[in-house]
Amino acid sequence: MSAPPRVQASGGPSRTGDRRVVARCAARPADVRTALGRVMAGLAPQLGDGAGRTATELVLAEVLNNVVEHAHASDAPCAIRVEVRVREGRLDLSVSDDGRPMPGGRLPAGQFPSLAGPKATLPEGGFGWPLIHSLARDVRYRRRYGRNELRLALCLKAPGATTAPKTPQ
Fold first, then answer.
1. Which parts of 4-55 are beta strand (E)?
2. What are the distances in angstroms from CA 155 to CA 55, 86, 104, 144?
3. pLDDT of 8-19, one tens digit each?
4. How far apart are CA 169 and CA 167, in angstroms?
5. Where are the alpha helices (DSSP H) in 90-169?
6. Residue 163 burial by Cβ neighbours in a 10 Å radius (0-12, 13-18, 19+)
7. d(Cα 26, Cα 151) in Å, to the nearest integer?
8. Within 13 Å, how many C-alpha atoms sit on residue 74's CB side?
9. How many other C-beta atoms can be found within 10 angstroms of the C-beta atom of residue 4?
10. Which of 76, 120, 126, 164 has CA 20 to 30 A from 17's CA?
11. What is the pTM of this model?
């Protein structure tokens, strides 16, 4: 297999008229950082500078970091594809890669590790998947045709937000 492209990104309306940003990169830290920056730049008009942007960048960075650290075998190239669709009030995020499958063929648990006990015994890792599960919804994983496929949705509206009440006529 040839090496995947270092970083490619594109964006624009999808067939359904929703905003869509697509990026492809190799599973290397510098390439993932560049791809993340390009995806976030492509989403800037829809996300602004609020909590939706922060949650999106945090979730996407964590997912991409997991591919680099866990799915990518250092002796084999690994291509990552990110697609984000902006729909009314939400983002649909899809990340696929041709790295190693998730252990047991399923998503890691969404429980944060215990912080009880002495400081010296606190865990250094294990927070990524719980963080993803806490910020996203409909988190789904499958292994298909030699690729990992992760899909999730992020809400762009604040929890409990409603539309402005109509004024009586």
1. 7-13, 19-26
2. 9, 10, 29, 27
3. 556 665 555 678
4. 6
5. 128-135
6. exposed
7. 19
8. 1
9. 20
10. 164
11. 0.80
